[in-house]
Design a protein that fits this description.
- The complex is a heterodimer of chains A (about 250) and B (about 110).
- Chain A has about 250 residues and is mainly alpha-helical.
- Chain A folds into 2 domains: about 130 residues, TerB-like (Orthogonal Bundle); about 100 residues, Helix Hairpins (Orthogonal Bundle), CATH 1.10.287.110.
- Chain A has 12 helices and no strands.
- In chain A, helix 9 crosses helix 10.
- Chain B has one domain.
- In chain B, about 55% of the residues lie in helices and about 0% in strands.
- Chain B contains 6 helices and no strands.
- In chain B, helix 2 runs antiparallel to helix 3.
- The longest helix of chain B is centred in the middle third of the chain and has 23 residues.
- Chain B is elongated and about 55 Å long.
- The N and C termini of chain B lie far apart (about 40 Å).
- Classes of the chains: A mainly alpha (about 250), B mainly alpha (about 110).
- Chains A and B meet through helix 5 and helix 7 of A and helix 3, helix 4 and helix 5 of B.
């Protein structure tokens, strides 16, 4: 397995389109870091740059990195990318990395660490990553959680227990299960989303609608519009709470 | 995120006994509490280690690529796993070896 990765780094170095292939490889590395490569992540990388038939095939890069996501030779690739940085390229690469990390619908803790690393690799200012994150996904960038703090696990375990209890109650009663499904569909409809919406899409829709209908934003509106906005705001918050309970968000 | 292993003076993958001894020997009460709650629970340790392994390697690469002064390294000033230049706080004296722990607990009481 480990024999594949040095071959990959060497192939990238020898590629006639070294920069484009190296960018693809760095994006695919981000995609495979937290688990098997998702088809949506692969698709996102494929869309990013036009492929030259003489370059290293995307599948070869993905296979090599899936076999060993952290090969010792990888810093050579990062050193090359760091040497090729420019302000314009930095923004487009940060955009690409954010899109790839979010393609599977969630941003994992490992991806947060990797995004910060890649942002520093490109010598981007600390503000660039949150700005682009907000612009592309409509979400606030959260720094990686402190997994050395037991409070992180306490909160996660409490939420998991509550979810398991709700799930058990639904399984025991078919009527409750049907009602829960209907409530979930309604909550997604309130946020203007389809049934297969990802957690990132749900959170982004909640943030957008909350801002839009927040009472503090209705200062110039008449009383009827204020009341309508308040009602809509409450509905959005209820839908968000409902989806959070199911770990959809 | 704190580097619990390094602060306890242990390597990644230390066994349960070594962890317990190091936690008992540490003078840093908060570090001991954190390590006990996170590393002595198998599920929590697995989740912690998956992230730790990647974050630790990225920290090593920061050194290799001369990225210690990165903007995020400054922003996350309290994270051992982002700031390679942050001095770790290992134990004042190393954790006792397994052999020294072999004595029954009541012998220690008799010695007093």
């Amino acid at each position: 397995m480990n024999g594949t990765a040095p071959g990959l780094v060497q192939r990238l170095q020898d590629s006639p389109q070294r920069l484009a292939d190296s960018i693809r490889a760095s994006a695919l590395w981000l995609a495979v870091l937290d688990g098997p490569l998702d088809a949506r992540e692969f698709h996102e990388v494929g869309l990013a740059l036009t492929h030259d038939p003489e370059g290293v095939p995307l599948h070869d890069i993905a296979e090599a990195l899936a076999a060993d996501p952290m090969p010792k030779e990888l810093p050579k690739l990062f050193r090359f990318l760091r040497g090729q940085r420019s302000p314009k390229r930095t923004v487009s690469l940060v955009d690409l990395y954010i899109r790839v990390a979010a393609a599977d619908g969630r941003i994992s803790q490992i991806e947060r660490h990797a995004l910060i690393f890649l942002s520093d690799l490109l010598a981007a200012p600390a503000s660039l990553l949150p700005e682009r994150f907000e612009a592309l996904l409509g979400l606030e960038f959260e720094a990686p959680a402190d997994l050395s703090d037991p409070a992180f696990f306490d909160a996660a375990e409490t939420a998991a227990r509550a979810r398991a209890a709700r799930q058990k109650a639904r399984e025991a009663d078919a009527g409750k299960a049907a009602q829960a499904d209907a409530e979930r569909r309604d909550a997604l409809l309130v946020l203007g989303l389809k049934a297969d919406a990802t957690p990132i899409a749900i959170k982004a829709a909640w943030r957008k609608l909350s801002r839009q209908h927040h009472p503090d934003r209705q200062l110039q509106a008449d009383d009827a519009a204020k009341a309508a906005a308040a009602e809509r705001f409450d509905a959005v918050q209820k839908a968000w709470k409902r989806l959070q309970d199911d770990d959809d968000a | 995120m704190r580097d619990l292993y390094e602060r306890l003076g242990l390597g990644f993958g230390a066994d349960y006994g070594a962890l317990r001894r190091a936690i008992a020997a540490t003078k840093d009460r908060e570090l001991g509490q954190r390590a006990k709650a996170v590393l002595l629970d198998a599920d929590r340790r697995a989740a912690h280690d998956a992230v730790y392994l990647v974050a630790r390697r990225l920290r090593d690469w920061r050194v290799e690529l001369l990225m210690e002064d990165g903007a995020w390294a400054q922003a996350l000033a309290d994270s051992d796993l982002v700031r390679p230049d942050l001095p770790p706080e290992p134990l004042a004296k190393p954790a006792p070896k397994a052999a020294a722990q072999g004595r029954p607990w009541w012998r220690k009481l008799l010695k007093r």
